[in-house]
Design goal:
The chain contains six helices and eleven strands. By secondary structure, the chain is α+β, with helices and mostly antiparallel strands. Among the domains are: about 45 residues; about 110 residues, 2-Layer Sandwich (Alpha-Beta Plaits), CATH 3.30.70. The longest helix is centred in the middle third of the chain and has 26 residues. The chain is elongated. The model has no long low-confidence stretch (mean pLDDT about 85).
Amino acid sequence: MDEPLRVLFFFECPKCKKRRGVYNDGTNRVSKPQLCPKCKHEVKVDLKKKGNVITWTTTCSFCDYKEVDVDDVDKRDAEWKKEEERDKLLLKKYRDEFCYTEEVGKEAVWGFDRMLALVEEWKERDKHKEEYDAVAKIKKLTIVELEKLLNDTINPKGYVRLELSKPDFGKHLIVGFTVQDANTSRQEHDSQHGFKRLVQGALEGSNWRLMSEGVTYRLGYLQGRLKAYEAEEDLLKLVSKRKNSKVEGVRP
């Protein structure tokens, strides 16, 4: 089985009927002689056929070894048919006990496929255990918890009257907001930058993020949008992004 696969071509002389075997790589096939199991000399094999009975006679001229092998085709076919009938009877008798119905069989195949999928999922989770553990620690805040967290964070810093708009129920839950800066001495850039830093810090470790367009400012009003991540796949991406941002020294 360790040898490479090759194609063997047979050539026969039309006059003397001598044959020769050649492999596709040009190598001649060298036939190995059959050896006597007792003295290891080459034996002679004679074949005789009478009707459907074939007889092989193997003799050794160097010792007294002789073996006769008879193959009765009719007898072999009869035994095979008898065995086949026996198998049919056994199958009919024990089918309900040992064989699935089509419906149960499909269910079993589905269950086996599901088991394989679970094994692959476990392997993937084990491979990325750190990320999955981080996902398990993420705080999944409801909208009420989010509103309280933001107010507790921004109110002491002079940002007041937080109002959330109607949510957008798409792939992700997106909620717009407005807030007022009660500190009239703050300039536009300082107000935006300060508020954004507070919100990002408060949302760190939760499933909510300030959206990429950031925060806009007009005459003391600040406006922006928040996005919630719920699916495990999205939370994994969030963890990965946060991990990469920490490596690069950038706040996610």
